[in-house]
Amino acid sequence: MLDLRKLAVFVAVIEEESFSRAAQKCHLSQPTVSGHIKSLEDYFQVPLFDRHTREVRPTRAGQLLYRYAKRLLKLSEELEREMRLFAQGGQGVLFLGGSTIPGQYILPGLLGSFKREYPAIKITLKVADTQEIARQVALGELDLGVVGAKIPERELDFEPLWEDKIVLIASPRLFKEPCTLSLRDLVEIPLLVREEGSGTWLVVQEKLREEGLSPEECHIVAELGSTEAVKQGVKAGLGAAFVSEIAVEEDLERGSVLKLSLPFEIERYFYLITPRHHILSPVAQIFVDFCRRSD
Fold first, then answer.
1. How do 240-244 and 190-194 pair as beta strands?
2. Which CATH class is domain 92-161+270-293?
3. Which of 22, 93, 233, 267 has the most crowded CB, counting CB atoms within 10 A?
4. CATH 3.40.190.10 residue ranges for the chain
């Protein structure tokens, strides 16, 4: 069986370009280092170093082994670290991303419950639009994400968690009372929208196209960078807007905005994003399991 300790010595010899310096680095005698290299050569049945020069120069087989040895040793370190986390009862740091609606209106309450169950886990929550959160999870900058739209991304898996409804709201300044609008009415009213990359706006555009209406036909008067900015614009009478019902529950109850009906409903899921080709850390897996229980 392949011995990781011997691989570590082999890597040290290549990186130090010296058997003696590798021996010092690994706290071994030089004969022991030479013995480990000979053992690896016997195991693979190929020479790993060029013996016809005074320089420590790996053969092509040695170069190949070096690349794989580095990866194996890194995986070994990750494994030890993650197993220690398990043994410590779920301590660690979770780097979580949320698009605007889940990040502002769902995850804070969920994280409160999560922290009560797992107080030793530290959480860092980043809020951005759906596309940015997906990008950072794909790059490994975030462990997980929760977003409001499913987008094409080969490096990620999207698991539906919770349902949501998107509603059209307006100020009492524009409409004295709730009413039903036709598609033609929708084209004529001033509309506030979120920026490109917003999960809410992506879902709305898709639904409008399904109903035979191009989003470009809408009378868009402003593109705003957050749900809160959209809500404030609506209250100021700038126009109507599509928003998550979760984000305007209190505003609807107070009467500061009105809900307008349409010939169709816009429903969606909030999705849990996980990296497709990477094993989740213990802390990330704990949070995934918690979300599934909270579904």
1. parallel
2. alpha beta
3. 22
4. 92-161+270-293, 164-267
